[in-house]
Amino acid sequence: MVMGSAAGGRAGIVLAGGRSTRFGDREKALATLGGRPLLWHVVARLGTVVDSVVVNCRRDQRAAFRTAVTTTDTDVAFAVDPDPGQGPAAGLSTALNAVGEPVVAVTACDMPFIDPAFFAWLCDRRADAGCAGAVPVVDGHLQVTHSVLAAAPTRVAVDAAAAAGNRSLSGVVARLPVTQVPAAQTRHRTARHSFMDVDTPAELAAARERHRAPRAVDRAHDPGETGVSNAGD
């Protein structure tokens, strides 16, 4: 069941093709949180606000990733990078080529606390603004991996960024007319930990602590201590 007032015509994109070098010799997306892979949590959450999900990955990841998400209630497809290791913008391009819907909700495989209701609100915010995307701001950074984008202009922006030698997601968004959701409004609409990503074993331990006792963690830690994704850079 898709949430939100503008549910039709949305696809989810999960970027998962990176090498996870800071995580050690394990596949980050398959690290477990509450007994399920991080990728499962991301797909399951995102799947409640989109019609289908496309996971961008490398060819050697696909079989294990497919197994990891089989118990979600989400229609999942896999978009394999033809030339792995070219950066997140290249992964986004690969995923966009597998999407037929006009609007995409973009996130990453290491963000297990993404907020489905906030994604639904971002979809409405983009539609109301009549622009190419809605991107929240946290700590001065555009959170591209918790954003909603119009697929067609984003394809053009990805190509333009690649032609300029820019492989970052922020380089793509810089070429789009997007509405930025100010930090204060973002805080009002969703919890800070929605943007928490897991790049290291220590951050996985912190995510597991939050998953086990979220209220206790919120009381014990200052909001500024929670890790926030800078994947757009």
UniProtKB/TrEMBL annotation:
Mg(2+) binds at residue 110. One of its GO terms (molecular function) is GTP binding. Residues 215-224 have a biased composition (Basic and acidic residues). It comes from the Archaea. The keyword DNA-binding does not apply. CDD domains: MobA. It holds the Pfam family NTP_transf_3. It catalyses: Mo-molybdopterin + GTP + H(+) = Mo-molybdopterin guanine dinucleotide + diphosphate. Its main location: cytoplasm. Residues 208-233 are annotated as: Disordered. Residues 12-175 form the MobA-like NTP transferase domain. GO terms for biological process: Mo-molybdopterin cofactor biosynthetic process. Its cofactor is Mg(2+). The keyword GTP-binding applies. GTP binds at residues 15-17, 28, 56, 81, 110. The N-terminal domain determines nucleotide recognition and specific binding, while the C-terminal domain determines the specific binding to the target protein. Transfers a GMP moiety from GTP to Mo-molybdopterin (Mo-MPT) cofactor (Moco or molybdenum cofactor) to form Mo-molybdopterin guanine dinucleotide (Mo-MGD) cofactor. Belongs to the MobA family. This is Probable molybdenum cofactor guanylyltransferase.
